[in-house]
Hints:
By secondary structure, this protein is mainly beta. The protein has helices at 2-5, 21-27, and strands at residues 33-41, 51-59, 93-95, 100-102. It has two helices and four strands; from the N terminus they run ααββββ.
Amino acid sequence: QGWIEEKEHYFYGYPSARVVTHYTQMIWHSTALIGCAATICPSYGSYDMPWPFYICNYITGQLNSDFHRPYDQGFDDQPLHDCQGKICLYNGTLDLNTCECRCSTYANGLQCER
């Protein structure tokens, strides 16, 4: 839930004085797969009680430091394209005119799933 709370501090195109990088990772233009896990760690050292530990991996991660622009902003007169929720995996690019995926060199398939 922590990442969604960062949304209120995020404004497209403006640096934030607060941490918003968990949120921008979730809305990053090329993020296709997200896997998260959690565990309870036992008390240890200065931690006198069990504590939760969370971790997430992303394909792909935020590859540069332009966190305040995680996607290209559209314009009012820009046509909208409906590819009916289709996504391209493993860093593939969706051609919005044809709704077909252009896969990276290491993936193939209709959605770059292989």
